[in-house]
Amino acid sequence: MSSDHDHHDHDHSKLSETELRVRALETILTEKGYVEPAALDAIIQAYETKIGPHNGARVVAKAWTDPAFRKALLEDGSKAIGTLGHVSRVGDHLVVVENTPQRHNMVVCTLCSCYPWEMLGLPPVWYKAAPYRSRAVKDPRGVLADFGVTVPKDTEIRVWDSTAETRFLVLPMRPEGTEGWSEEQLAELVTRDSMIGTGFPKKPGAPS
Amino acid sequence: MNGVHDMGGMDGFGKVEPELNEPMFHADWEARVLAMVRAMGAAGAFNIDTSRFYRETLPPHVYLSSSYYKKWFLGLEEMLIEKGYLGREDVAAGHAVQPAKALKHGKFDLDDVERVMVRGKFARPAPAPAKFKIGDRVRAKNIHPATHTRLPRYVRGHVGVVELNHGCHVFPDSAAMELGENPQWLYTVVFEGRDLWGADGDPTSKVSIDAFEPYLDPA
To answer: InterPro entries, per this entry (chain A) (predicted)?
Structure first.
């Protein structure tokens, strides 16, 4: 491909080589009749609106308030979440792992970027990047320190490497001082990172 | 394959740097790449394991220096060329100049969008009884296939314990090479941190992988 400097067309002068190549590929796939560009727009819109950590937060908050749901969730995550009509369809193979005073769970995909999209949205860049993928399994406490997170010395750290089509969601511990809170209030405390295991839920009254 | 994608346990990549208020996409083209990969996969041009394999086979320096969606783009383009859906002449021209190849599930249009937003099902009927049960000690095989595998290097040769049985799933090592689904039992196998990383390893850490039965021997 010629260098970007050869492009004097106004529209293209600001586009990177990657942007030009991506545009060209979409043009080709469209011209060949493989994809409808409006369908690509719709996929993007669906990712931008339907999935995200709000789904996971609702599940965690319900588990904190409903012992029967919590039990069902830990036994079969996909099945239990399937009973909640308002949560994006999670599909099969979701495993929910519970943090306790004895054990802190953390999820990684060392080989690529496997992540529970329906529950948490698309993964952040750090989750897909080399520092996290390389160190999470060897030095989990060091990685947690990068997030400003400290887990007590005698707590077991369990790292789940997502090497198959199973997906893992961490059920964090319910923050103290939230007795009597509604599911909606509790869901506000549940952060994305607390469901990956690289953070804790917000504390009541802490700035959001 | 023993590629740079198999990063577990490597040193030297530095600190994890979370980005505050990270946007879903950092540029519009990233979203287009994601959508094209999802659409072409759903149309039947490739399966998820093949798409992973094409990203893994990017030259190591390209893999390490490319952003996430750049890797997706490069893998997608190469895979579509090798599978015959795209010609190098098309790419050079920036337009379709060669005839199209029929897609297994036809053109991807608006009616197909709902389908890609639901996770696929990977469980399959079991062709044989499970060899291992929960609590069994197993050794990850010391294997080094040059093709796609989901057995990370850092566990090979090490002994762990079967903790969960997920049933039979599509076997990525076969599916990636388009050799069929070849369903295999899938287990969560947990290893002690010190068994994996030696005496310097964190004694409070345990690491699990999800391992297909052909990756495991009794221990």
So the answer is: CN_Hdrase_a/SCN_Hdrase_g_sf, CN_Hdrtase_a/SCN_Hdrlase_g, CN_Hdrtase_asu/SCN_Hdrlase_gsu, Nitrile_hydratase_asu
